[in-house]
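Example 120, ligand heme C.
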Amino acid sequence: MPLPQMIGENMRQQILRFLAASILTCLATTGVTRAEMPPANIYKANCDLCHGADGSGDTGPGKAFHAKDLRSDEVRNQSDAALTEVITKGRGKMPAFANKIKPADIQKLVAYIRSLPVKK
Ligand code: HEC
């Protein structure tokens, strides 16, 4: 008996369902990879524009909006909670990122900001 006839409608549906599940699993895994983007990449994608790669705020938009130097004592002396709040809710010309960056990633960004080398 040729193979196609052995595979009944039921079997075919199971195979299709299995394929669909595999594709979904694949997509979900890709999502996890993206969620675990290193903070440097998150910073580059969302913050670089105004704050500059080095955190100085020495960029066109950064100067126009008066973005603060993220390496300054004024910023570094603030608590993690305070910095988290500014990034989450925004302040003045600083946009809110609550809808764009997950809380866990915002926490990583706070640590990342603190790790930017201090200017000499
Ligand atoms: C559109 C330009 C812009 C972008 C994009 C931007 N910022 Fe800002 N940011 C500002 C400005 C302007 C301020 C100063 C806000 C104020 O206090 O008036 C600021 C302030 C801050 C402060 C607080 C400094 C302080 O003294 O309290 C932190 C921390 C900060 N930004 C981090 C980030 C992070 C992290 C990102 C990316 C997720 C980001 N910013 C993206 C413009 C920007």
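Summary: DSSP finds eight helices and no strands in the chain.
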